[in-house]
Every structure is written in structure tokens, then in C-alpha cells.
Amino acid sequence: MEKYNNLLNDIAELIEKSLFASKDVKNTVDKSLKLKKDIILNKLNLISREEFEVQKKIIEKLYKDLKKLKNKKAKKKTIKVKKS
To answer: Which member of 40, 51, 71, 82 lies 3.0 to 4.6 Å from 47 by CB, making a disulfide possible if both were Cys?
Structure first.
């Protein structure tokens, strides 16, 4: 009976140690994957949504200004043609 109890204690101890080891492995893998993800995202040179919206507004304003300038230029050409 004592051998049986010792065997059960040994098995319980092995299971306990393996659980702690598996938690350590999981933590190590999680940290490693997070680091790899961060490295890849940094290489992609991504921007935040807020930065994107700011740039989008700037581009929209520049596009409107460009249209106004093109219209002004077109009007000047039609005025010159009429005078000639």
C-alpha cells in the first residue's frame, strides 16, 4: 500500500511540475509571438486611424484647392480667347 501511495505521490508531483513547465512554455511562446508581431507591424510602417483621418482631410482640401485653380485657369483661357 505504501508503494502505491508513493507511486501516486510521484505521479502527482510529475503532473504538478509539468503544469508549471507548460505555463512557463506558454508564457515564453506568448511573449515571443507578441515580439514577432510587433516587429512585423513596425516593418509595415502602419499609422493610426487618427493619423489616417488627418491625412485624408488634408488631401481632400488640397484636391478642392487644385480644382479651384484649374477652374480659374480655364476661365482665364476662355476670357483670352473671347478677347482675341
So the answer is: 51
Summarised one tens digit per residue, pLDDT across range 33-82 is 999 988 888 888 888 999 999 999 999 999 999 999 999 988 887 877 66
Task: Report the amino acid identity of residue 20.
Answer: F
Domain ranges of the chain: 1-46, 47-84
Residues in the chain: 84
Instruction: Show the cell assigned to 39.
Output: 516587429
DSSP summary character for residue 45: T
- 45 backbone dihedrals φ, ψ, rounded to 5°: 60, 45
Q: Which residues contact 55 (CB under 8 A, 6 or more apart)?
A: 47
Distances (CA, A) of 12 to 7, 53, 74: 9, 58, 87
